[in-house]
Amino acid sequence: MHEIDRDIIIKASQGDISSFESIFKMYSSYVFNVALRMTRERQGAQEITQDVFLTLYHKLKDFQYQASLKTWIYRITVNHSINYMKKQGQWTNKVVYQQDEHVASVANDIYKNLEKEYHENVIEKLLAVLTPEQRVCIVLRNMEGLSYEEIAQALNVDINVVRSRLKRAREKLLSVKQEVMAYEL
To answer: Where are the domains of the chain?
Structure first.
């Protein structure tokens, strides 16, 4: 499943019904399947799917693009599924039945996947603000664990060039992080 175009999300958040319908068509079966896996009830999954898209319709204007729309919809679906199961008496913290263990396991996997996808999106967006030279140095140093000397050899540049690129990259990332934090406050 590919990610939906940002223009469609913006139009839908402004009330464009055909754009919202595009979002619905792309994600409704996905939402239904997540809800069905969690509740193990077809009727409950249908109800949750309706609730998720009602919530999405009203809150799409609040979407911040910090994660993908799919991730955001996933979170909404999981929360609605948990709330549904609580109402139905299927979710309990005191007594865990085999079915509830499966649901808890699925929910745990979902949250792990959401967290991983969120962090990957954040990293991708942060790396995008760097120049290609800075980006390759950051990736080789912080993600691949290469030493400064190894990076210099791999890029066929002087070690001082590597130090300079890493310093500038870190300064840029720090300023972006501060901007984001100031925006969120």
So the answer is: 1-95, 129-185
Contacts made by residues 26-29, CB under 8 angstroms, sequence distance 24+: 26/1, 27/69, 27/70, 27/73, 28/53
Over the stretch 85-128, which tens digit does the pLDDT of each residue have?
888 775 544 434 445 555 566 666 776 777 777 777 777 778 78
Instruction: Say what the pLDDT of residue 20 is.
Output: 92
Verdict on whether the full-model pTM lies above 0.85 = no
Output the CA torsion sign for 121, 122, 128, 131: negative
Number of C-alpha atoms within 13 angstroms, CB side, residue 28?
A: 13
CATH of region 1-95, choose from 1.10.1740.10, 3.40.50.300, 3.30.1330.40, 3.40.50.1100 = 1.10.1740.10
Give the pLDDT score at 11.
92
**Greatest pairwise CA separation for the chain in angstroms:** 65
